[in-house]
């Protein structure tokens, strides 16, 4: 299995380990598989989610230097549960039981263990740059904190993350530094990309979803979840994914392309309408992001669209495979209230985007809505709506009570070094 750049598909080929360490392709593109696995290896669901995910990822590491380490890495990285909240076929895939209570823990922990293994073998060091609109930075900081051969710089937009998210981003020391950037998430993301393209800066890599190591675990849990759903109900689900930078969704599209039993994939976005507008007009226009209640999805120029365009090169092909709806802040609040009153089920603002799309467009279809974060991370939004205090997961409580450390800087990547 080899990987190529989205910008030179017929160009230089890289192994999975090389792609993970580089983060971004030499030409500025994103790494994608040269071809998808011909089939998904058979696995037993009785082995647990981590084992199913390990089995699903094996074809991407055949012949790679991490091949012999993959089972150990998966066992160590995925030491928390993946759960279905059952709704008689209208199910919710809960991905927030990791250390920072968000789905990003899967990719961040896999990436940290993989990089540490590779760098120790090489006797090299790397600096990880990560831009975040909320959850990514906290997951990366937690996963990489204390790892050998690795230092991390977390960039997040000042004043645009929830307070509990901010505590997760800034409660670190040692090899993790946090920066509050004057600007939007898109400004933070541009700083990271500009730093990568600076020929004078060496030893950099990424932990955003532009890194292949983030996407492969996401691919794998969609393989597991769709097979679990099919075993339960005998039907292929429509998978509805709250989407910002589109990395999580890309993992699902790769799983479907490899043969996972998925009927359709739907992107639920907030008021940042870049993708729905493209589907309606045929003209792709990235723009500055706007602030919403689902702040981790406040992305106006999704990086992983480049991967989706590589998977679906023409507009007609893209439109026949990708569906997307936008959900307003008012509808986010309405959905949180309805889900609580009808089902006594508490969801975060991001998950509410997916639930709204399900209720409005797929009420009669077999569905999985992806729950991307624990609602306790957004207590200032959710608790007034449901009139109830949300219990805080122990891992989140511990991080919240760390000393906060960060530096305020302008949106200029030179200030990081």
Q: What's this entry about, in short?
A:
The chain is an alpha/beta fold. It has helices at residues 16-22, 49-57, 70-77, 104-122, 135-144, 163-170, 185-196, 212-233, 247-257, 274-281, 305-311, 315-321, 329-343, 349-361, 379-386, 394-400; strands spanning 3-5, 31-33, 83-85, 90-94, 126-131, 150-157, 176-182, 204-206, 238-242, 264-269, 323-326, 367-371, 407-410.
Word description of this protein:
- With 417 residues, the protein is α/β, with parallel strands linked by helices.
- It is 41% helix and 15% strand.
- The chain contains 16 helices and 13 strands.
- The chain has helices at 16-22, 49-57, 70-77, 104-122, 135-144, 163-170, 185-196, 212-233, 247-257, 274-281, 305-311, 315-321, 329-343, 349-361, 379-386, 394-400; strands at 3-5, 31-33, 83-85, 90-94, 126-131, 150-157, 176-182, 204-206, 238-242, 264-269, 323-326, 367-371, 407-410.
- The protein has a 6-stranded mixed beta sheet, with helices on both faces. Strands 8-5-6-7-13 form a 5-stranded parallel beta sheet, sandwiched between helices. It has a two-stranded antiparallel ribbon with strand order 1-2.
- Helix 3 packs across helix 4 (104-122) and helix 4 (104-122) crosses helix 8.
